[in-house]
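#onboarding

Welcome to the new folks! Below is a worked example of what a typical request in this channel looks like: someone posts a single protein sequence, and someone else replies with the predicted structure as tokens. Don't worry about understanding the tokens yet, we'll cover that in week two.

Example request:
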Amino acid sequence: MIGNRWQRILTMLAVGGAIGACGGSTPTAPSSSGGNGNNVQALASLAFSPSVITIQPNQSVTFVFGSVGHTVTFDAVNGAPDNIATVNSPDANVSVSRTFTTAGTYTYHCSVHTFMTGTVVVGSNSVTPPPAPPPPPPGDPYGRRVP
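Example response:
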């Protein structure tokens, strides 16, 4: 049997999904699964989650807006996709996808809540590890150096 707390949580999720589905025909209603799993939630608690997401070139990120209006405004760099919504007309209860074709790091913020920031890293962000240290000099079993 589900406890009262979980029952309330499930009810809130069901009601939230029903409200989100009424968000209009364009773009699309929010979804937690998205087509590619590269979702960034614009939360009512005024944060993007996750705040950093890493994808490969030509993949897209879906920005999911809940009941509070937000924007996604990219810093002006080559390869950045179009911004989402404006401070005068923020998006709520919709999901909007952007495709990133060029490797790089793309930072963004919400123009309504300027302290909300996030980053999309496109391409490999791995660093080549330093070379392994040289092996120790030869020695005998007691750790003494052998000439």
